[in-house]
Amino acid sequence: MTETMLDALAAAVYISRLQLTGETVDTDDKRLRASGLYPEWAPGDHPRGEIFNAGEQTWEVFQAYDNAVYPDVRPGEAAWYTFNRPLHGTSSQTARPFVPVQGGHDIYRAGEYMIWTDGSVYRCLRDTNFSPEEYSADWEIVEEKKE
């Protein structure tokens, strides 16, 4: 089995367990735990609220767009962040690589986790738009990089 297939299987089991208890996938952390079932991003028409994977991140469209109209809205381009926001996990298991904050729609909130460029997992101590390098007082290391 490939890693993608294992991620999808783990996500399906997670969602099944939620459904058995009457819960839904209604938070960013739950969406990240279910991310193995989301499609990879592809050019096209993207409605608000759509969730997909691109790179090592799971993203949500917060402003609808169509790549036929806005061809520069694609992963890695500056326009990307105008329309999409990365989901942030609330545990070290759902931490994703740090994405620089572009606006109020994607700030890191207190209690959210991310993986810094050195591989260490950090927890956000208060709402911030700064990285640990820019303002370390907003972050604490919860897991040192594993050698």
Short key terms for the protein model shown above:
147 residues; Seminal Fluid Protein  PDC-109 (Domain B); 4-stranded mixed sheet; 3 helices; 20% strand
**Secondary structure tally: strands:** 9
Strand order, biggest sheet? 6-7-8-9
Share of residues in strands: 15-25%
Output the structural class: alpha+beta
Stated plainly, the CATH topology of the domain at 93-147 is called: Seminal Fluid Protein  PDC-109 (Domain B)
Outline type: globular
Percent range for helical residues? 10-25%
Mean pLDDT rating: 93
Question: Could you list the spans in which at least 5 consecutive residues all have pLDDT below 50?
Answer: none
CATH architecture of the domain at 93-147: Ribbon
State the helix count. Answer: 3
- Our measurement of the CA-to-CA distance between the termini, rounded to an integer number of angstroms, reads 26 Å
Biggest beta sheet attributes? 4 strands, mixed
What does this structure look like?
- With 147 residues, this protein is α+β, with helices and mostly antiparallel strands.
- The chain has a domain at 93-147: Seminal Fluid Protein  PDC-109 (Domain B), CATH 2.10.10.
- Helices cover 19% and strands 20% of the residues.
- It has three helices and nine strands, in the order H-H-E-E-E-E-H-E-E-E-E-E.
- The protein has helices at residues 3-20, 28-33, 80-83; strands spanning 45-46, 51-54, 57-61, 65-66, 84-86, 96-97, 113-115, 121-124, 139-143.
- A four-stranded mixed sheet has the order 6-7-8-9, with no helix packed on it. The protein has a three-stranded antiparallel sheet with strand order 2-3-5.
- It is globular.
- The protein starts with a helix and ends with a strand.
- The mean pLDDT is 93.
